[in-house]
Fold this sequence. Notes:
alpha+beta
Amino acid sequence: MSEASVGVCQLGYIGIGVSDMAAWTDFACDVLGLQANGSSGDGSLYLRMDEYHHRFEISPSGEDDIILHGWEVKDAAALEQMARKVRAFGLDVREGTAEEAARRMVLALIKFTDPDGIPTEIYYGPYLDHRPFNSPRGVNSFSAGGLGLGHIVLGVDNIEEYLRFSFMLGARISDVIHFPSPNGPLPINFLHVNPRHHSLAIGPKPPSGKRLNHFMIETEDLDDVGFALALAKKRQLPTGTLGRHTNDKMLSFYVHTPSGFRVEYGFGGLLIEDEELWQVQHYSEPSIWGHERP
Length: 294
Ligand code: FE2
């Protein structure tokens, strides 16, 4: 593979800094159905959703926001090539130490800060847990594996610069939704790095200054979305209605996390099976139906 064409192949993990670990542990395990899978030793919690040892690291650092995103490449050669690309883009890159790699449970990683100031990692060689995924509330399975953990939607200060950064990583535009807003249409760019319709979406930063609008996780059984929705309502969590998105056709609902940002819990998202045939489109609404806010 030429250096220009090397790119990340999935959103592997994210770190979230939270102010209430107990509420997050309860929410993540007993509402979302993620599996607690140990701690990195400083009070943070690993959460598992598939064969990967963990996909989420919840840390008691109080930001109530995303504090890390980690992107996978296929091997050591691709990691070296990506280090050169990120450096050529103008960011300071350093190799992760053996201790840092061990903490993430990967063979090697590089570390830098994205154009919006979020610590970012690229790694290869994730540790796969040989024990079966075991959801504490009986979710059958999440759609993850080679498609990555799901997607994140980020609000950034400079959208054009963040898009250039995303293209450098290897992401491609799937489509754009011009969200209706009181101040006129608000463009959100959706980007893919593998067949999942989007692993990343980029919009303007909200007045709160928080970067993470939401993350999305996808089940492989529609009933698991229904169970989660019923449970969220029973617990009287701020929960939206079911809906289907215009662009990725995801059937999903949104629920507020203990940090205030939302989780999208979905089923049946579109896959971009053939990159060569995909054409960029745009929409004026995020949903075909539903997705009413709490
Ligand atoms: Fe989403």
